[in-house]
């Protein structure tokens, strides 16, 4: 903490004539610097004399910086998701337009009807498979001849 005090004193305790002699425009900067110096030096003194306060202040600064970095990462992720969504939307729209352009409205309707038929037949097949699996879990032997019930040691 002594190093911070030494550097703060070095930067804030410059000769006032050094600022005032350069140009009259620096006079406002000099007044603002003196005001900031009068606010910061007591805070630095108090923090350097109470290390618990310095630890809390350092921890607070670390938490704030890490939250700011986390917010920047979140904004980056959101940007890329929005960009991907826009690319998919406009790319799909362009692909749909190219499909319509190359096949024409009648050809596009034929393609849609073909794919609708193919998907509905697949859906029917897998729906039937699911029905068979459900019935076999319930103990119903679906689609096969019934098996005789085994009784006793020798199946009688």
Automatic annotation (TrEMBL):
Instruction: Report which superkingdom the organism of origin falls in.
Output: Eukaryota
Keyword annotations of the record: Membrane, Transmembrane, Transmembrane helix
Q: Where are the transmembrane segments?
A: 53-74, 80-101
Tell me which InterPro entries the record gives: APQ12 (IPR024316)
Q: Which Pfam families match?
A: Apq12 (PF12716)
UniProt protein name: Uncharacterized protein
Organism of this sequence: Recurvomyces mirabilis
